[in-house]
């Protein structure tokens, strides 16, 4: 089937990304094949290469979609107002919810090796930096007179806590005896408190609902 009969100019690239995201979520990023995507979309085998140099380039584009989602959610939380600690908790909760709602995309973004290849001057590297700086500004606002080195150390601790919890959940490494008497909300709140400090959960949930209304991932489990 001829590409021009199915796509207007410029649409095939996004169609490939959308189809790839479905494969990543359903079967994992390892299963992605440009040849199979071309067949699925009814275009020639060579058509995807007019938009992506190779499979890794398409995977990187999918990962960038994920970072844009996280940034949009964080921006919605920031615009919703409230104090900095509540915003930080809402961002952390949204990150956990993102990992649970889109585990395939999460694994692609953080466990596929793409970030090791990202450079500061390429699009993926720039999105990663922007995501980091967006959260870093919120974390800095929760602390008084923090110097850059201490802030970076706090970010490392925060990142390790949130990412570690998300991966423990995805890998089902939290055994029943570890969770006896603990609700999912209890566990999530403990992780957020460890990552950022304590706040009031009601305000965090309100901010999270704003992010969801604007297209971000749900904060609640």
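Q: What amino acid sequence fits the structure above?
A:
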């Amino acid at each position: 089937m001829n590409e021009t009969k199915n796509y207007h100019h410029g649409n095939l690239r996004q169609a490939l990304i959308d189809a790839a995201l479905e494969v990543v979520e359903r079967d994992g990023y390892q299963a992605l094949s440009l040849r199979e995507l071309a067949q699925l979309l009814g275009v020639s085998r060579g058509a995807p290469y007019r938009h992506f140099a190779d499979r890794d380039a398409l995977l990187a584009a999918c990962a960038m979609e994920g970072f844009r989602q996280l940034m949009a959610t964080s921006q919605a939380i920031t615009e919703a107002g409230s104090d900095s600690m509540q915003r930080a908790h809402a961002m952390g909760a949204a990150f956990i919810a993102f990992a649970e709602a889109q585990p395939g995309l999460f694994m692609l973004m953080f466990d596929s090796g793409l970030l090791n290849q990202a450079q500061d001057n390429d699009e993926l590297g720039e999105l990663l930096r922007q995501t980091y700086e967006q959260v870093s500004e919120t974390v800095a606002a929760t602390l008084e007179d923090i110097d850059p080195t201490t802030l970076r150390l706090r970010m490392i601790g925060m990142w390790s806590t949130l990412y570690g919890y998300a991966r423990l959940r995805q890998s089902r490494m939290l055994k029943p005896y570890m969770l006896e008497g603990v609700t999912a909300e209890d566990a999530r709140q403990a992780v957020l408190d460890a990552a950022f400090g304590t706040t009031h959960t009601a305000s965090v949930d309100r901010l999270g609902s704003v992010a969801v209304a604007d297209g971000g991932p749900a904060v609640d489990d």
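Q: And what stands out in the fold?
A: The chain is about 65% helix and 0% strand.
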